[in-house]
Task: structure prediction
Amino acid sequence: MSSEKDIDFVLRTVEERDIRFVRLWFTDVLGTLKSFAISPEELEEAFEEGIGFDGSSIDGFARMEESDMLAFPDAETFQLLPWRPRESGVARVFCDIRTPSREPFEGDPRGCLERVFERADSMGYVFNVGPKIEYFYFDNDLDPVPLDKASYFDLTPSDVANDLRRQTTLTLEKMSIPVQYSFHGGGPSQNVIELRYTEAVSCADNIMSSRLVIKQQAAANGLFASFMPKPLSDAPGSALFLYMSLFDHDGENLFWAPKSDHPAHLSELAQHFVAGLLKYAPEYMLVSNPTVNSYKRFITSGEVPNYATWGRKNRSALVRVPTHKPGKHVATRIELRNPDSTSNPYLLLAATLAAGLKGIEDELPMPEESTSDTFNLSEQELAAKGVERLPRTLGEAIERFEQSELMRETLGDHIFNYLVKYKRQEWEEFCTTVTDWERVHYYGGV
Result:
């Protein structure tokens, strides 16, 4: 809940900065950003009593007969929108969604993450996450033709997005979203922006804001930004890498341990957390990789995880342990490599945190490190090592998710049942759609 101090600061800022529109932001179950604007005169009432809206028009929220919802702004998330004029300015604030009786709405993705985060907090853990967002720039929203032929970290005249990344970074930082790195990605016209780590709910808010800013800045320059996991058949796909760690309430990193305890400097707690991520990955992949196209990204390139493994220098592992600088214990973290930006970041962080906490609670042992590329091993060899293959299609991911007690418990019946129903419809529609590939191969007959 917003504190009185935060609310007073927001109300004073709105008055002093001549803010004429306050946009209330929230997401539907699928992760689409939703918004409606109120006048500054309505803001104080919004903090105290919420602002009513029709939830039946939001995917996954409510049926017509129970459509009334209340949006309660979170004052800590108040920010001016820097691309709007200074005079009669516009601000945004993320909201928690509640029922008319002011109970948390079980279909609110942000509320879902808050519940899991608070459970971790009660156990003495603060879940910190730093996202690395990959995406493409194209010159239109219909035909994905690359604008350059550059590759990782290239700085050449062919990198047409260099200035655009700079503008995007500056805009994000004006919204108090610090960018740690930005650079050209591995594919043509692919770009990367990595945000500084923060606690989980703020991280999800920052991901939602970044997606909008990236698209808005691209459109302002006559380009189109796409977060589609695999828009080009012959180029690398786009991921949403997550750098994760648990801290205690004193700011100490709980994942670090001396090398004498573990070769990757992982504490026993971190090992259990990783074991949970590996064990439950097939169950949460419907959340982390929720579209048909998500699974086109998982090709045998050596850069994308296809199996539930971990490693340090092995980028085909699901969980990678980056090497931190000597003496920088606070930087100890793990990298989850399978998610993509079609995911709802609130549900993504809720599901993966729950998997890690389950690993801690059950004291799951961390399996053997995957030191060689898993693609060099046969299915039989992997099975002998106890390595499980991740779902290959959206259909497989739905089946694994539907059987998961952990995901139902974490997300709640409302979100869980909606995802199963909606995604099954999406999968069945895809399976009955005739594609260009099929026409090329089968239209002429035998």
